[in-house]
Amino acid sequence: MEKNSVTQALESFRGEIDAIDEEIVLLLSRRKAVVEEVVALKKTHDLPVYHPAREEDMISRKRDQGVKAGLDPDYLEALFRTIIRRSRVEQAGRMAQKGVFPGAVVLIVGGEGGMGAYFRHWFLEAGYQVRILDKADWPNVRELCSGIDLAFICVPIETTAGVIERLAPYLPKKAVLSDITSIKVKPVEEMLLRHTGPVIGLHPLFGPSTSSLDKQIVVAVSGRDHTACQWILDQFAAWGSIVVKSDAKEHDEIMDIVQSLRHFATFTFGQFLQRRNINLQRTLEFSSPIYRLELGMVGRLFAQDPSLYSEIIFASPERRDLLKSYIQSLESNLAMLEQGDKSKFRDEFHNIADWFGSFSEQAMRESTFLIDKLIERF
């Protein structure tokens, strides 16, 4: 085929591809219009944004459809997860304007802080009356508490108990009292002790930089009068959050691992790199994507407020005991290193792998997905 003919053929194919791409855009626009109808229906009937069973069923169908059409099912899954994610975010944004308890008055204690200001925005967007009680507002505490439906405590862990004690005498009996600290046993006990009305402990597992509540996890610990507190959980569900219910003891034990141990291990790794004066940029030139991802998580920690992490890590004696146990566990490997005992390492490795079980395969799939995305980015 002559060069001119090849060029003409390419132009013809490219024109056909452009036309197909235009059809895809039009179809996405039509899909968005239908989604807006879905949002209107959900707002009317207070239905949650996130429907995990439907989403996973849809992904399975698209994978099967892709195989039949001669397409890579992983490619189709990635494509439709992007479409679904965008749809959920748009729904959550619209649902943010829907209050499940119209006319309710919310008092945010610590409303000038990061999380306080964050939730102030979300409650205002949902149409609630929002009042702020911060350090300078305590002379007006009686007036600020008058007629409120929810007292939402967003203060540092070490001041939470004192704030609860100071606030409780002014709360209407019907008002729900809630906190959002990362420990739950002591705050919930204190709220139950000081307030005779409804009590619920909450722990949002995200920070104030989160742009959407889509699929963000909020742990709920029941304290007293669950029925009176339900509207708050319904509101988080309407915003797109996933509400995980727990008791205070279980929550704290799991958070000791999920937050305190994880953050401390990240801190110590970063500390080691700093003390060795490692050339980070040079290591990245030699690194695999997984190292970049791991180092990125370390760097992410040190880009944030140390006060926040010190509160989380040192929140309770139990957490500090766990971290001491972690350090002792590391020290137990010294003999293996000094002796160069590869056999013992392999034995330990197999024992740990057996304990992780099927999660290891899940972790491989999920981390591979993240690595692929990182490769696309860089």
Structural class: alpha/beta
Total beta strand runs: 7
Low-confidence stretches: none
Strand content: 5-15%
Helix % is 55-70%
For the largest sheet, list the strands in their spatial order.
Answer: 2-1-3-4-5-6-7
How far apart, in Å, are the first and last alpha carbons?
38 Å
Encode the helix/strand succession as letters: HHHEHEHEHEHEEHEHHHHHHHH
Summarize, please:
The protein is α/β, with parallel strands linked by helices and 378 residues long. The chain has helices spanning 3-45, 52-68, 73-95, 114-125, 141-145, 157-167, 185-194, 226-238, 248-275, 280-285, 289-302, 306-313, 317-331, 334-339, 342-356, 359-377, and strands at 105-109, 129-133, 150-153, 176-179, 199-204, 217-224, 242-246.
3D structure, described in words:
This protein has a 7-stranded mixed beta sheet with strand order 2-1-3-4-5-6-7, with helices on both faces. The chain is globular. Helix 4 links the parallel strand 1 and strand 2 (129-133). Helix 6 (157-167) runs parallel beside helix 7 (185-194) and helix 9 crosses helix 11 (289-302). It folds into 3 domains: 3-94, Up-down Bundle (Chorismate Mutase Domain, subunit A); 105-246, Rossmann fold (3-Layer(aba) Sandwich); 251-377. The mean pLDDT is 91. It has helices at 3-45, 52-68, 73-95, 114-125, 141-145, 157-167, 185-194, 226-238, 248-275, 280-285, 289-302, 306-313, 317-331, 334-339, 342-356, 359-377; strands at residues 105-109, 129-133, 150-153, 176-179, 199-204, 217-224, 242-246. It has 378 residues and is α/β, with parallel strands linked by helices. The relative contact order is 0.06. The two termini are 38 Å apart.
